[in-house]
Amino acid sequence: MTFEKICKVADIPDGGVIGVEVGETPVALVRKGEEVHALHDVCSHAEVKLSEGEVYDDTLECWLHGSCFDLRTGKPTGPPANKPVPVYRVKIDGDDVLVSLSKES
User: Fold this and answer.
1) Is the peptide bond before 76 cis (omega within 30 degrees of 0)?
2) Burial of 34 (0-12, 13-18, 19+ CB in 10 A)
3) At a CB cut-off of 8 Å and minimum separation 6, what does 77 contact?
4) Residue 1 and residue 101 in contact, taking contact as beta carbons nearer than 8 Å
5) 32-36 contacts, C-beta under 8 A, 24 or more apart
6) pLDDT at 37 over 50
7) What is the overall mean pLDDT for the chain?
8) Is 56's pLDDT higher than 90?
9) What separation, in Å, do the N-terminal and C-terminal C-alpha atoms of the chain show?
10) Among residues 40, 16, 10, which one has the least CA distance to residue 28?
11) pTM
């Protein structure tokens, strides 16, 4: 599994979300305290950037129609979305956030 350095932990506001590119893949990075979650940055319902949405508890809410996604699994937790978004592995190395798009083996 290959991890790529994406940003500093401090670049992601605590309780917030930023959009980044990992290669050509759009990724939404969400920080909750010491944890960072990475989800595909495209809503499975309306194909807009999830990184422009809001974070509530363990959920990322899409700004357009209010679809909600679990930060850990990418599964929809509120309509209108009914398909999950991919989630990616994250490692913290010192102050750096690393993300892997590879599937676990």
Assistant:
1) no
2) exposed
3) 59, 68, 69, 70
4) no
5) 32/58, 32/71, 34/92, 36/9, 36/12, 36/90, 36/92, 36/97
6) yes
7) 94
8) yes
9) 8
10) 40
11) 0.94
